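INFO batch 0412 | record 1 of 1 | parsing
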Amino acid sequence: MMSGLKQVAYYGVAVLILKGLGFFMLPVFTRVLNQQEYGYLNFLVTLCAACSVILSFGLPELIFRHKQTYKHELNSLITECVLVSLTGCLVLTLLVCLNIDSLVLLLPVNVDKLDIYLLLVNLCCSALLSIPYSYWRLQNKAKSYCCACVAHGLSQTMLSLFLLFLGLGVTGVMLSGAICSLVILVLALIRVRKSLIFSFATREAVIKRRDFYFMSSIVLSSICLYVGNGAENWFIVANSNTQTLAIYFVAAQFALMTSFAFEPVRMWWFAKRFEKHNNNAALYGYEATRCLNIAIFISLVMLILSEQLLVLMLPDNYAQSATWVPLLIIVVIFRHHADLLNIGCFLVHNAKYVFVINAAAALLMLALMAVLVPKYLMTGAVFSLITVHGLRALAFYITSQMLAPIPYKLSQVIVAWLCLFILILIGYSNTDYVTIKRLLVLSIYGAYLVRLYFHDISKIAKQLATVCGYKYA
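INFO prediction complete | emitting tokens
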């Protein structure tokens, strides 16, 4: 338990600093850049996210999956993953350079070619960085992961600030990202060089044909997942302008604070969940439900705080964003359900059901967006997101239980949803003392969780007391 807590703590430090830097830069961006420029920057971020889904090739998931099967061949696996990723990056670079003019014409926003090239450097470095990052997570080297992420975030933030105040605008932000990503990539590869085995000698490949099927399924599923989590940006900017996208993106960022706050637990859990399931399916169900309750509690806390922070941090022309934050937090909670209650879909048939569900969700999302966003803009986008992610979470749970039944105790989550709806209703009602009423509801749910997991909390407290007593004895 303490080893797991220590890992979560390192991941927590990394996420806290990275996301803290991101939110520190949010008021800077919204003041140094006008709304049109900030919307343009967010479109580039959206484009980067779309391409990184493909360029990852599902390699992090493959590394996690192989922990049980190929422990003695892990170094060979890491080497092959680096080679696959490097090949993909070279192919993408060649295609972009040869077709840059056509690519610019296809985009719904007028994008500068220099920004495209800088985005390409960011993409390739991020794809390659995912290999050592995944290796560190798998090997319980959260400290190495934390140091690399923090160094990356701090250096990029400082350089971005410097270039912004030099007047380079969006291009300066993209340039800082490219430079820092490249430097951190070189340092990370040097750090894991002993785990890389490059040889011209003929040897049996660790990545088998079935693994490529698995990777293909993960990539296709990730593309569909991106459609469910990023397509609205394209529809909004195509049917409106970058200013509207900027308002929506700010609301989405504050809603995603809930996901970022849960990220340390998620990163530790996703690296260990296959092992935990193999060891004890019943205990896995209990721990997955506990993680879900933690995720929802964090979401409720952030729901109360995010609206207040938005008003305090940003200029008045972003005040409209606060309206959409609670509804987007519902989307995030649906995503937590889908992520934590889906392991059966990954255990059989090379995760093809993951692709099937995400593909169906993506098609439904595109259909709803195509009909609703041109007419209702952000209202249509948010309605589409809530509908599709709710159905997707239900589909993952039902399918997973059919393939590999897990004794989840979802009755324990009903209280969480009840508190969520009460908090949202209080926020949209024109009553006094909204924050106090919300905090009262949150305290009731917190007391429920303490009662529910009192044994776990007591166990952790005793272990912490033992460690502290040992250190200071």
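INFO post-check: The radius of gyration is 22 Å.
INFO record closed
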